Amino acid sequence: MTLSIITPWLDHPEFIEDYERALAGPDVQVIVIDNGSSAANAARLRAMVDRLGGIYIRNEQNRWFAPANNQGLAKASGQIVIFLNNDIAADGPGWLGAVRRDVAPNTLAGPSVRKARVAQWTLPYIDGWCIAGRREAWDLLKGWNEEAFKMPYWEDTELSFRANKAGIRLQQSNWPVRHKWNGTAVTIPAARSSIDFNRDRFISLLTGQSAAIKTEPGPDEAEFSTLADYLKAGQLSTAESNSAQTTQDQPQNARAWLAYGAVLGCCGRYDAAIDALHKAIDLEPALRPDAAREMDNIIAGFNHALQSDPFNQIIQNERRRLQHKWNTRLA
Q1: Count of alpha carbons within 13 Å of 16, Cβ hemisphere only?
Q2: pLDDT tens digit string along 209-244?
Q3: Nearest-CA neighbor of 147 among 31, 235, 34?
Q4: Are 100 and 94 in contact (CB under 8 A)?
Q5: Strand residue runs (E) in 119-266
Q6: How many CA atoms lie within 13 A of 21 on its CB side?
């Protein structure tokens, strides 16, 4: 059976080697959705996808997990579709044979099946770092719920809940593929802040309170005015798009570049954030302390992640690299 493997990706070129080794097999369609990587990292990603004979999709804003997954699903042609994180490793593509063997009709399968305690319910779910199903199952589910979950966390729990309601079985697999825990979203401020927000949305869905799931301001509501407003409403992609447009309309506006850098940092687009913050300093040197505070916020995300995983080399190396880039540009 043919496989389509869908992976949202943002920077982290250090994952390419293991990812490519794990997927370089026959009858495999790899679809990578680049959620705004730096130019250098985007070139590396595109080259990897070309080597694998896959499809590369570029987003100029971070569209996050569920929307990017649905972009990939729209391009997928495989009989089995796998949603797979980029921070994985396997001893070659042999594990994909086990996927073909195990993914039965009317089933979603993955290596990690957990239970989530949500209000008064205990719900099984397949962890979203690796989840596979036949195309008919994904078509029945209509993919991921990007309207309710524009930002990460709880999407896999909600997906599994909908699968159960639709009569689709959840199955734990024993595929020899490994997940490198805490390699990506754990450092991103917006991702961390969306955990509670998305849990509340999921509870609203469980209790039938669909009216509580509002992500866009209505015609009579005030427009978002601060980054915190966008963050509270789960609208970081909109904030990023609006900020980018402002810098295009007002390229000499230093404070617009400063605000854009803050948004990019919150979205995990760290290289672009540093570039924007330095642009603000170039235009208005007096903004250097403000830009430095935004850079401190970026580094604080890495420090926060290292509190719970102090020996994580991925996080340590990325923190060191970004700090070096910031200091080099200041010199």
Answers
A1: 19
A2: 543 344 444 433 345 567 777 776 667 778 888 899
A3: 235
A4: no
A5: 121-126, 130-134, 169-172, 177-179
A6: 13
3-state secondary structure of 114: strand
Q: Tell me if 141 sits within 8 A of 208, measured CB to CB.
A: no
Question: What burial class does residue 289 get, using C-beta atoms within 10 Å of its C-beta: 0-12 exposed, 13-18 middle, 19+ buried?
Answer: exposed
For residue 225 the two structure tokens come to 């005015």
Contact (CB, 8 A) for 170 and 113 = yes
Lowest-confidence segment of 120-134, 228-242, 247-261 by average pLDDT: 228-242
Q: Hey, how many other C-beta atoms are within 10 angstroms of the C-beta on 84?
A: 22
Record the tokens describing residue 32, joined without a space: 């990578």
Tokens of residue 234, six digits: 């789960």
| Cα gap 246→210, rounded to integer Å | 33
Residue 83 structure tokens: 């949603």
Q: Give me the residue label for tokens 């609203």.
A: 204
